[in-house]
Amino acid sequence: MSRVVLVIILGVSAAMYFPDSRQAIIDRAMPVLKPILTRAANNEMRTISDELLEYDQIGRPLPSRREWLRWLNENYPGEHSVDPWGNVYQFYPWADSLAIISYGPDKERRTDDDIRLVRVRRSWRRR
User: Fold this and answer.
1) Residues in the chain with pLDDT < 50?
2) Residue 49 gets which letter from DSSP?
3) Residue 69's closest CA among 56, 87, 51?
4) Are 69 and 88 in contact (CB under 8 A)?
5) 12-38 b/e with 16+ CB inside 10 Å = b?
6) Which domains, ranges and CATH numbers included, belong to the chain?
7) For residues 83 and 89, is the Cβ–Cβ distance under 8 A?
8) pTM listed for this prediction
9) Element (H or E) spanning 90, and its range?
């Protein structure tokens, strides 16, 4: 059994080396991978928004849209600042809430596969 698994892994690895076969494998695997990657993006977005809400709770200012990339890279360096598809997470603060957005697998803004996490700001609830 372990030999069969090893042969399959070697076969897939070899196929991934060639761009044409790589894309075919990715296309076939996407129905399985998309829910897993979407869940991973949601978890990362929740972690980021939790920290932002903690900032808000203790009275620290939230990063502005201009400061967002710097803040994200300082607090979530490397691959933690991007979604599973390589897009930088977006941040939208409002007086009563905040949103973290992933552009999803198509990497296009404002499409059906975008992932949005909107959270109510705690400071807003206290008013």
Assistant:
1) 127
2) H
3) 87
4) yes
5) eeeeeeeeeeeeeeeeeeeeeeeeebb
6) 2-125 (3.30.700.10)
7) yes
8) 0.75
9) strand 90-93
Rounded Cα distance between 20 and 126, Å, is 56
pLDDT at site 67 = 95
Amino acid, res. 75: N
Q: Helix, strand or coil for residue 56?
A: helix
Q: Where are the alpha helices (DSSP H) in the chain?
A: 2-17, 19-57, 68-75, 122-125
Contacts for 53 with CB less than 8 Å, ≥ 6 apart:
98, 119, 121, 122
Q: What are phi and psi of 88, to 5 degrees?
A: -70, 135
Tokens of 51: 């920290």
- ∠ at Cα 76 (124, 112), nearest 5°? 70
Q: Which helix (H) or strand (E) holds 101?
A: strand 97-102
Per-residue model confidence (pLDDT) at position 6: 67
Picking from 126, 120, 127, 115, the residue whose alpha carbon sits closest to that of residue 53 is 120
